[in-house]
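Here comes just one.
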Amino acid sequence: MKNNFKKNFAYIDGANLHKGIKDFGWRLDYKRFRVWLKEKYSVECAYLFIGLIPKYKDLYAFLQKSGFTLIFKETTYDGNGRVKGNCDADLVLAAVRDTFENSYFKSVLVSSDGDYAGLVKFLLEKNKFKILLSPDEHCSVLLKRTNAPISYLSDKRNILENIDRLYKKAPDADKTA
């Protein structure tokens, strides 16, 4: 097998990323985020694990155009009509598969969910882990206990925020047409 494994892979829990950023009151510029992953962490392949909801097909097309490889999870609805599409097992399986196939040099995990602590420990043991990118400071203590390097995306808000909405004014807000 060819030894050109200086490329890194990112494994992104889409729901955790979106909710973590949204809870802090800002919107992530996904296109800018993808470029940042490539430039900062040499991420060649960015897997974004996300629930499949047909009404969001335009979002999915945008994310793919921005350079993400989408891995869809079939969704269901709970008793209150909320969408359920837990991608944790699919993300772990993909990361472990890619590790054993030696598909990448180092991995980047984007999530703050403690359910991934076992995966992080495994990747550290295999010397295949680069960094954990947590959407915010509310990263699980289980992840912190792994002693893996962690960076908080909330600290990168100035470069990763979608600022388009900041410059859009409400119609007639300043009494101009």
Notes: Confidence is low (pLDDT under 50) at residues 1-5, 166-177.
